[in-house]
Amino acid sequence: MPPEDAEVQVRPGIEGDLDALTSIYNHYVLETAITFDTAVFTPSERRPWLLSHPEDGPHRLMVAADARSQRILGYATSSPYRPKPAYGTSVETSVYVAPGAGRHGIGTLLYDALFKALAGQDVHRAYAGIAQPNEPSERLHARFGFRHVGTFREVGRKFGRYWDVAWYEKEL
Hints:
Number of helices: 4
Strand content: 25-35%
Number of strands: 7
Radius of gyration: 16 Å
């Protein structure tokens, strides 16, 4: 958890962040249904993902770090929505906050920086899939103008049960 007076720096992700980013993601793989990955990753396995988010263009990786310790507190991404060319102006966004760093505004800082970075890019819509239930994520997305457009029922199976995913859309 960041100290109450901690200054948080939000910046593009770099290769030196890979170990911390992988650790954060693996927490969600092992402990939650927020991601439907079921096996943890090594940093080398996650490297192509990191490299697919350059410092410019529509596919970004923004990282929040404690300004003093440089501990990674979370990250947000905009990634290709689907691989076919006509989807090129749509992105899928996500936010992952480090264990213990939630409820301190990290997600808000990350999304604010991500959407500012996307301003002026050739991006028409952002989409977010939120495994249910996840009220904190729904509130975050609503704060940034996402609206619910539908729910896929029992679309994923993890931890021996089926999970719904609610889909949200934002005009950019």
